[in-house]
Amino acid sequence: MTVQDVAPTTAPADRITREAPVAPAPVPPRAENLREVAPADARALSKNLFLRLRDLEEGTREYSYVRGTLIELNLALVKFAARRFSHRSEPMDDIIQVGTVGLIKAIDRFDPTLDYEFSTFALPTITGEIKRFFRDTSWMVHVPRRMQELRLTLAKAGDDLQQALDRAPTPREIAQHLSMDEQDVIEGLKAAEAYSTHSLDMPGDEEDAEGSIAARFAVEEKGFEAVLDLESLKPLVAALPERERAILSMRFGAEMTQSQIGERLGVSQMHVSRILNRTLSRLREALLTEQ
Q: A Gene Ontology molecular-function term (predicted)?
């Protein structure tokens, strides 16, 4: 079809060609530019993207694109959380990588209809993922980086020699194999023992009537678990909508009945019960996720 086919018969053809071109549709920001978005703009854009993500079918190309954009937009949260662990010996890139896993989990679990910011919801999940990383992979006793790297070298040399000798090699044999000083090998083998330790709950010898080390020496602090739960709950409660926080305060702080709360708020006791059950379930799930 030509321009003349769609133009009015009374208009000259050259007039059509002089018309101002139609402005192109706005193009979404490229992934490499998302990290430069101002925090306030990132929050506003994230909110819109979360609402869009909720209506998309998981596994589709558009769903993956929106989810990936949300990850890029909120990587600043990961870096903010990772800075708290900058004193640790692990490379910062590794910490950020682990924190990004926590960010993805937070994105997948966030409900955009709730009345609080995504950052408030995501930071505990990101921090919990990083803490879990240190708990599962870090050395139980701090040793210098040189010793940590030496442990891997000694372990590989020990495996190679054990296959060749058909027995466990001696420190001298390992030292000769690696062209190292025997004393350095002995020091490295001792340091390797710090990678993992026996639990205080580990059963003692069969003749040990008192059981584990913890049973013999540990003193149980009453209320310790309650204090831990309370500290973990504080940021989760702070993230709740004001009405839900007020109902929790009246029920567990002022010890009011559900009927009394309903009278004060002008709602039924049944409605108060539903709000309490929903709020407590959400807090319980968040606590289990962080743990």
A: DNA binding
